[in-house]
Design a protein that fits this description.
mainly alpha; MetI-like fold; about 70% helix
Length: about 290
């Protein structure tokens, strides 16, 4: 059935604001960065005039140890945070989906960190991770004062896991609400039929809940991966990439090159490569995870 002209115009009217914002804040900046990546553009124009330098920025990238260090840490962060956050979010969604007293309170409690600005969360957790902070004191009490205080954020072994733990805690509420919406869309008749057939809760979870949440899970994994790969705020506030590069990320490297060293051309090349990697990874996830069409 062909779409009527009125419906087509209505669709275009609703799409226009989103397309305008997408073009203004993503498409245009990407092509600007792509063009600048072939120049020696500086943030502040000085004695060095802007000129075309070809692929020199990309060649420099191949010899940049901080680039590879940042990429490695970023992908380690995503590899740890995405599955754990997704699993915890699904578990919390299953719990708050039960018809129990106080579920609204729990939903609000779990979601509150998500709506709090990451900078604020990072500052609070910086105090919590202090050697004399609440976490060290708690561990000291539960270990009957055998625990020796650790300066988590200044310890090479603990700094990145500490940021991962805080990031999972902060973001799990968002994924929980998405899973909760997906759970509430599953027809109860499926569970009733499974109960009649003798299926226990575990089998119902494996053969009904998970398959029905396939599209929701795909969205959550892709969205969480993108958010994890753009790790910056908590690192910038809590460690600035230290100690000794243990928490250095690609986003922090782009920031340092562009705004501290004022090398916009090289920062643009880093941005283009990072954008293409994230885009490729998202498309790969979409292909591998698949999506059921209604």
């Amino acid at each position: 059935m062909k779409m009527k002209k009125k419906e087509l115009w209505a669709m275009l009217v609703f799409l226009l604001p989103a397309l305008a914002l997408l073009t203004l804040f993503i498409i245009i900046p990407f092509f600007m960065a792509f063009g600048l990546s072939f120049t020696n553009q500086r943030l502040i124009s000085g004695r060095v005039p802007t000129k075309f330098i070809g692929l020199l920025n990309y060649e420099r990238m191949l010899k940049d140890e901080y680039f590879f260090k940042g990429f490695g840490n970023t992908f380690i962060f995503a590899a740890v945070v995405v599955p754990l956050q997704t699993a915890f979010a699904l578990g919390l969604a299953l719990l708050v989906n039960k018809k129990l007293k106080g579920t609204k309170v729990f939903r609000t409690t779990y979601f509150m960190p998500t709506v709090t600005v990451m900078v604020v969360v990072a500052v609070i957790w910086t105090f919590l991770y202090h050697p004399e902070g609440l976490i060290n004191n708690f561990l000291k009490v539960v270990s009957f004062y055998k625990w020796k205080p650790v300066d988590f954020l200044n310890n090479e072994q603990w700094a990145f896991p500490a940021i991962m733990f805080m990031s999972i805690w902060q973001g799990v509420g968002f994924q929980m609400l998405i899973f909760l919406a997906g759970l509430q869309e599953i027809p109860q008749s499926l569970y009733e039929a499974a109960t009649i057939d003798g299926a226990n809760k575990w089998k119902q979870f494996l053969h009904i809940t998970l398959p029905q949440l396939r599209n929701t899970t795909t969205f959550v994994i892709i969205a969480t991966t993108i958010l994890a790969l753009r790790l910056f705020d908590q690192v910038m506030v809590m460690t600035q990439g230290g100690p000794r590069g243990a928490t250095y990320t690609i986003m922090l490297h782009i920031y340092n090159m562009g705004f501290k060293r004022l090398n916009v051309g090289y920062a643009s090349a880093l941005t283009v490569v990072f954008f293409l990697v994230v885009l490729g990874l998202s498309l790969l996830q979409k292909t591998l995870l698949g999506e059921e069409r209604g």
